[in-house]
Amino acid sequence: MKNIFTYSLIVIFLFIVIFLGLVFFNEKNRNDDNFSNLVSMENASEQILLGSSLYLENCASCHGNKLQGQPKWNIEKDSDGHNYAPPLNGTGHTWHHNQEYLFNIIRYGFKKMDPNYKGKMMGNEDLTDDEIWSILAYVKSIWPDSIKDKYESTNKN
Predict the structure, then answer these.
(1) Taking the alpha carbons of 94, 89, 59, 139 in that order, is the dihedral positive or negative?
(2) Nearest to 121 by CA among 108, 140, 131
(3) Domain boundaries, the chain
(4) Could you tell me where the beta strands, DSSP code E, fall in 7-66?
């Protein structure tokens, strides 16, 4: 009887040790994930901040300081017969395009897609890839949540 009691205590002790080990392991992984998410959020914030600065420097003269675009962008042409710059704040059509398309427009303008293009969006080949991705991160950070959700659902990578 004494052996059964001792054996039972050993089994209960092992279950407790295994249970506590699993709890500790799970908590450690959860904390690691939280740290990763925090680092990821910090990196995203830095990217958006850089994108904001680059946007103001390279894009705002046409698309506006608040990404509002030019008035009548979708109904009239300018005095040269070109389209006005569209809004990039989610009220225009920017979010209808995938990331690679938007990247290429920033990099090369429309000239690469249409050799006869005579508009004003000529692109900026002086920006690095990371700078262009930062501008796009900034632009997307301004969009309303409903537009972000639609964009993410149609542009899953």
Answers:
(1) negative
(2) 108
(3) 2-154
(4) none
Scan for tokens 């698309």, then name that residue. 63
Query: For residue 70, how far is the Cα from the chain centroid?
Result: 24
Report the alpha-carbon distance of residue 71 to residue 80 in Å, rounded. Answer: 16
Neighbours of 114 (CB within 10 A): 10
Q: In 3D, which of 137, 111, 121, 112 has the Cα closest to residue 55? A: 137
Burial of 116 (0-12, 13-18, 19+ CB in 10 A): exposed
Tens digit of pLDDT for each residue in 75-108?
999 999 998 999 999 999 899 999 999 999 999 9
Could you please state the CATH topology (level 3) that the domain comprising 2-154 is classified under.
Cytochrome Bc1 Complex; Chain D, domain 2 (1.10.760)
What is the pLDDT, as a whole number, of residue 34?
A: 53
* Token duo for residue 7: 């054996």
Q: Kindly tell me the burial class for residue 111, based on how many C-beta atoms sit within 10 Å of its own C-beta (0-12, 13-18, 19 or more).
A: middle
d(CA 104, CA 120): 15
- Number of Cβ within a 10 Å radius of residue 39: 10
